[in-house]
Write a structure and sequence with these properties.
With about 425 residues, the protein is an alpha/beta fold. The protein is about 45% helix and about 15% strand.
């Protein structure tokens, strides 16, 4: 028998009468029926382990609810999520990327309207400014777990050994490369998206112009794209960074790269080995032409969000699980700051009481939260086509296949074929 709601699931019992062969005795067995819901997330093994433990605690609190879990690493999750959203087989509660709101719910109907379960899901822990990140067309589709930004991390132990201070400006990194490159050490590195955003920050500061206009169209001209390309080429030529194609996390772990641009939520994923080794890692200011300009041209976004399926047949139970994941003490202590400082005020207070608001990710979150120049990130800025085409244009210059001016014009024309231009 399929349960139609939490109350029905909790109260419904099947009474089984088993006839005994002796003295005509009867045994009465009560069988409680469970409501089954599903939860999906992505992440590494530690995230999976603590989430599974949290789910077990939730089920102990609510024995009438069973949670089926679906999880994998990022790339597999992203691919399967698209299939499940299109086929409408997504989980009742799911971790989502902020860009998926525009992909699947531009009009606000792609995910469940969380305002309908506000009697179960405690929204008082979140400001209106925070909730706007998960709102589309006036409909609250998702709740941000924590905020995120690409951040500069420096292995202070390595820099100190060369008598170098923590870089604050673009020139500081070029000066550090002049020293470190003699021992084949890069002062910085990063994956393609990180360096793409790093190059945008440089170009926005240099030109005084935003990459996107207020309507979301690409506002950079060929000349401004050329600034980005020339900057990236100079970073590589002067050995500030390896080419993004040559980036590997192991270079951070073994000290070949003494710094990295990475998300707040990825701090320990990149530098956990270094921290365990005893190296001092610091979250540096956002690179700028002058320290006073730190944060200009840099962007922040929700690290990740939770949403509910518009197709869920158990919205109350799903909302109970969602509230547990966001605001419950057990979940807060298990998760810590692995996804960043939780936005939920209640979750923050639990971590503060437990002395868990510390460590590299916490320090990176503080740097992010204290910077007033960071702006809301447009999901389009993370578009893989934008990034890959930029990398291709840079390689034309690095391999002497085109001048920076020619590569920039070609990049502009390529963007114009696929994206709205200002």
């Amino acid at each position: 028998m399929k349960a139609t709601g939490r109350a029905a699931a909790a109260l419904t019992a099947a009474v089984v009468l088993v006839q005994c062969g002796c003295a005509g005795k009867q045994i009465v067995r009560s069988q409680r029926e469970q409501t089954v819901i599903s939860l999906a997330w992505w992440g590494n093994d530690p995230r999976t382990e603590y989430t599974l433990e949290a789910v077990q605690k939730f089920q102990e609190l609510h024995p009438d609810i069973k949670v089926n879990c679906n999880y994998s690493e990022w790339s597999g999750y992203e691919a399967r999520n698209r299939i499940r959203m299109v086929s409408e087989t997504e989980s009742d509660v799911m971790q989502i990327n902020v860009g998926w709101l525009d992909d699947f719910s531009e009009d606000g109907t792609g995910y469940y309207d969380l305002g309908k379960v506000a009697d179960v899901l405690d929204l008082s822990e979140y400001s209106e400014d925070t909730l706007k990140y998960g709102t589309r067309n006036g409909v609250l589709n998702a709740i941000p777990i924590a905020m995120n930004a690409e951040t500069v991390y420096i292995n202070k132990t390595v820099f100190d050994s060369y008598g170098l201070g923590i870089p604050q400006t673009w020139d500081d990194f070029f000066a550090a490369a002049d020293v470190l490159s003699k021992d084949d050490i890069y002062p910085l590195c990063g994956a393609s998206k990180a360096i793409w955003l790093y190059s945008i920050a440089y170009a926005e500061q240099k030109t005084g112009k935003s990459f996107f206009d207020d309507k979301g169209a690409i506002a950079f001209t060929p000349e401004e794209l050329q600034v980005m390309i020339e900057f990236y080429a100079e970073l590589v030529d002067r050995k500030v960074i390896p080419k993004v194609e040559d980036f590997k996390k192991v270079k951070v772990e073994n000290g070949t790269c003494a710094g990295a641009v990475a998300w707040v939520s990825d701090a320990l994923n990149y530098f956990g080995t270094s921290v365990d080794r005893g190296d001092e890692i610091v979250a540096a200011d956002y690179t700028a032409f002058t320290p006073a300009d730190s944060g200009a041209g840099w962007y922040e976004k929700p690290a990740t969000l939770y949403a509910m399926s518009k197709n869920t047949t158990h919205p109350e139970e799903a909302a109970m699980l969602l509230d547990f994941l966001l605001n419950n003490r057990d979940m807060a202590l298990l998760q810590g700051v692995e996804k960043g400082i939780p936005i939920s005020r209640q979750a923050q207070s639990y971590l503060d009481e437990a002395g868990m608001l510390s460590g590299l990710q916490y320090e990176a979150s503080v740097v992010m939260d204290n910077n007033t120049k960071l702006r809301e990130m447009s999901p389009l800025i993370e578009n893989n086509t934008l990034i890959n085409e930029f990398n291709d244009a840079c390689n034309l210059v690095l391999y002497d296949k085109a001048t920076a001016e020619e590569a920039a014009q070609q990049l502009y024309d390529t963007y114009a074929e696929s994206f709205e231009m200002a």
